[in-house]
Design brief:
This protein is of the alpha+beta class. It has 32 helices and 21 strands. Strands 9, 10, 11, 12, 15, 18 and 19 form a 7-stranded mixed beta sheet that branches. Strands 13-14-20-16-17 form a 5-stranded antiparallel beta sheet, with no helix packed on it. The N and C termini lie close together (7 Å).
């Protein structure tokens, strides 16, 4: 049997780095982990050595954290996760299973699918939703991504010369934090988080390489070439981060990447390092951009047609932290538990998930010790980490305060693209990124044997003892009268029931107890010095703290809760019409509701995308980022007068309305959870032939026509513009003369798929064929194989003029410039693979086969 031994020199540096990132400590990297797993049979290691692997320890802790899900057959009750994100994934997977690619989403009056950010369709781990039932797929998806998050944090801190135990504590503090648990609700946000820290880890690794080899290399280009394998790793990490599809968590960390590059060059006082790091990150990012350009380019062409084309409401009233919210760093539930309406009392943050950032007592108390080491005693990597962590955490916290400081409002007003974002508290992600660095440095300081104890450490201990004492006093204060908790946040809503207040107290007690235990561990370690058991106690304390306090953030239910097929969908199983649920608004208030029967009612009554994507069922709700004209259309349905409401419902083909008791009464008033389907015979089919039409000069005039025209006239004369599509691109074409006479005509649908429609028509004179799906660049139409323009009809739909006689009409959708984008993506993949092949050849050259 032949195995390989590795030469330290002159093996290609990039491979040596990935397998043994530090020659002394050899921390496990993702590439190293894959290598070890693939070659496990060639190593003569005991099982105990494998169990000591940080990756295995983190995986075991993740299993323990989610143990109740797998042991009792439960899954998380996720509002956005199920009713939005998973539904979009299932639509794409179902379309692929049907033999076509999901270019177009036919639901909600239609919109592009690939262009829509937020689907998560291209994220590799989304495949679990095609392999398992929804409940088990959610469990596996959450477990794997939380584990990867911990592995990424560990990888990053180890590359920055932080010890094993501090790195483990930092990883546990982030992967099990209330921030992470709250963002399980948004599965694509959870998917984006791990790759942030892997990217930082690769940047940290290259920083050490460039620093060590900077004086011995012939130039920056040769340095980059020798470590091209590391650059390819960075490229694919960028790709994974983007494919997770939560683009705020893809964009915000770039502040951290840029700051890291600048600080490394400043600390090293080297312009050449700045150039090397910038080129390393820039080239890797450029290749990654080429690989993802089909989705990225289409997304940019899609945004001008969406609600994000206009200045977006920042929602300062819903996502601005205040001073009282900072108490949640100690007592995460002091502002109430997740849910509505009387279990959460934190004005300024609309939901629990918007303003929570508890990382555990040990992380909180260890953080100040990051500042105690003398500057001259620190390595340059530690200096970079300290300044980077402080700036990032401070900036993220200031921005998260929203309109409580003038900074974010000014940025929202003057910084380009900021007015396309909302919820300032999402910048808490930067706080957690900075905290990773500071917690690692703090725990590392504590574990060092420093005798006698430094005065600065004594002062910090005294301050933390005072903090623990004040926390105990606050706990006693609210236990004596729980109604004082809402008063701390200046809550002015309805009085909170005593049982809801009492339900929070156990979490407060546990939080206070772990604060005292963490302080005790720090005092003992500093006073007596670190022993062999000290690291295990630290890791165990951090994990148990978050298992008890953070794990209950997300409610659970039996794993089959999502498998139920709504019985009411059988009423709407006709693709010629659409169904509209009056319970759309209830979706927002399902967050963290632990009642299984409420979720079953929501699925049955068609809340949001609950009926999506069942066969032949077309819903009015539009998933993800919505088309701008769709939003205006829905505003007329909800707030227009009776004529406008009927016209807009009829024109878009709404034949069924799901109605019943008002949803607030169902959720909180004890009303019967019943819903009924109301049939509307006046609805116009999604595919219709018209013998007459009403020319309009603009979409604004078309909108006024729909608002004012009598219903009978709308059925006979749709509004049509000269604006049209030809070969998928916008143009203008002259309308044919109106016939002004009635005659017979027929329409037959011969094929209907997500991006292709085929019809057979017959008529005595020219007719207008209208498809009540969105008019959007990329659609093209042919009549008997000959291209014909697609006009914009009824403000936002598609229509073509069909000449007299029998004809075959085809509508097909192919995203504009997709061919060019795919060519660029292939070029990016070819570049990355070429670099990998060249690395492999060098590896074969330096690997020495032995018996």
């Amino acid at each position: 049997m032949t195995t390989f031994i590795w030469k330290t020199v002159p093996m290609p540096a990039d491979l040596s780095i990935l397998l043994n990132s530090e020659r002394k400590t050899k921390p496990l990297t993702p590439m190293g982990l894959l290598f070890l797993l693939s070659r496990m049979h060639t190593f003569r290691k005991s099982g105990l050595a494998v169990l000591r692997s940080p990756a295995v320890i983190l995986l075991l802790l993740t299993f323990v954290f989610f143990a109740d899900l797998f042991l009792t057959g439960k899954t998380f009750l996720l509002r956005d996760g199920f009713f939005l994100i998973i539904k979009a994934d299932l639509y794409g997977l179902q379309t692929l299973a049907d033999g076509s690619f999901p270019f177009w989403d036919t639901q909600g009056a239609g919109k592009p699918y690939m262009e829509n950010p937020g689907t998560g369709f291209f994220y590799p781990l989304s495949l679990v939703f095609s392999m398992f039932s929804v409940g088990w797929a959610i469990n596996l998806f959450c477990l794997l991504n939380v584990w990867l998050l911990g592995l990424g944090v560990y990888f990053f801190t180890r590359q920055m010369q932080i010890g094993r135990t501090p790195s483990m504590v930092a990883a546990i503090s982030i992967m099990f934090s209330t921030f992470t648990m709250a963002y399980l609700e948004f599965l694509i946000a959870l998917a984006a988080m791990p790759w942030i820290f892997f990217i930082l880890g690769v940047l940290g690794r290259f920083y050490h390489i460039a620093k060590e080899e900077g004086g011995r290399t012939t130039g920056t280009i040769s340095l980059l070439w020798r470590h091209r394998g590391l650059m390819v790793a960075l490229t694919f990490l960028f790709v994974l981060s983007y494919c997770a599809s939560y683009h705020e968590f893809f964009a915000y960390p770039f502040l951290g990447y840029l700051l890291f590059i600048i600080l490394t060059a400043a600390i090293e006082k080297s312009w050449r390092l700045l150039l090397s790091m910038s080129l390393f990150c820039g080239i890797g990012g450029f290749i990654a951009m080429l690989i993802v350009v089909p989705q990225l380019g289409l997304m940019w062409s899609f945004l001008p047609f969406t609600e994000r084309a206009m200045s977006f409401d920042a929602r300062f009233d819903m996502a601005s932290l205040s001073g009282a919210h900072l108490l949640k760093a100690i007592f995460p539930m002091i502002g109430g538990r997740p849910g509505f309406p009387d279990v959460y009392w934190s004005p300024g943050t609309y939901e629990f998930c918007i303003g929570t950032f508890y990382t555990g007592a040990l992380a909180l108390l260890a953080l100040p010790f990051a500042f105690l080491s003398r500057w001259r005693e620190r390595s340059r990597a530690e200096r970079v980490l300290l300044i980077w962590g402080v700036i990032l955490a401070a900036f993220g916290l200031i921005i998260s305060l929203g309109d409580n400081t003038p900074i974010y409002p000014l940025m929202w007003k003057y910084v380009p693209m900021m007015n396309k974002l909302r919820f300032a508290s999402k910048f808490l992600l930067l706080v957690l990124m900075g905290e990773v660095a500071l917690v690692g440095l703090g725990v590392q300081y504590i574990l060092k044997n420093r005798k006698p104890l430094e005065k600065r450490a004594v002062l910090v201990l005294c301050a933390e003892a005072l903090l623990a004492g004040l926390a105990v006093i606050l706990l006693v204060y609210v236990i004596m009268d729980p109604s004082r908790m809402p008063a701390l946040f200046n809550y002015k809503g309805a009085p909170v029931p005593d049982e809801k207040l009492a339900a929070v107290l156990p979490s407060l007690r546990w939080s206070c107890a772990f604060l005292v235990l963490a302080l005790g561990w720090i005092i003992w370690t500093l006073w007596r010095g670190a022993s062999r058991a000290t690291p295990l106690i630290a890791i165990g304390l951090a994990a148990i703290n978050l298992i008890i306090v953070s794990r209950p953030v997300q409610p659970t239910a039996p794993v089959g809760v999502y498998d139920r097929v709504p019985a009411m969908t059988r009423h709407a199983a006709d693709s010629r019409f659409r169904a509209f649920s009056l319970y759309e608004g209830a979706h927002q208030y399902l967050y963290a509701d632990p009642r299984v029967d409420i979720y079953e009612w929501a699925m049955e009554s068609g809340v949001n995308a609950a009926w999506y994507p069942y066969p032949n069922v077309h819903i009015l709700y539009q998933n993800g980022i919505k088309m701008l004209k769709y939003n205006i259309w829905m505003q007329n349905i909800y707030s227009g007068d009776e004529t406008a409401k009927k016209n807009f419902l009829n024109a878009i083909g709404v034949k069924w309305i799901v109605a019943g008791e008002q949803w607030p009464n169902i959720l909180w008033g004890g009303a019967k959870r019943e819903a009924r389907v109301v049939t509307r015979p006046a609805a116009i089919p999604r595919f219709a032939l018209y013998q007459d039409w009403h020319p309009v000069a603009s979409d604004g005039e078309a909108l006024r026509y729909l608002q004012l025209v009598p219903n009978l006239q709308l059925h006979a004369r749709p509004a049509i513009e000269e604006t049209s599509l030809l070969r998928g691109r916008g143009t203008s074409s002259t309308l044919p003369p109106r016939t002004m006479q009635s005659f017979s005509g027929s329409l037959t649908v011969t094929k209907e798929s997500n991006s292709r429609l085929e019809f057979k028509t017959n008529g005595e004179k020219t007719q207008l064929l209208v498809v009540s799906d969105a008019w959007y660049p990329g659609w093209s139409a042919t009549i008997d194989g000959k291209e014909t323009p697609i006009h914009r009809v009824n403000y936002m739909f598609r229509g073509v003029f069909v000449p007299p006689g029998a004809h075959e009409v085809t509508f097909s959708f192919w995203p504009v410039k997709l061919g060019w984008y795919c060519a660029a993506s292939c070029a990016g993949l070819l570049m990355a693979l070429s670099l990998l092949v060249s690395c492999w050849r060098d590896y074969k050259k330096y690997a020495k086969p032995v018996s």
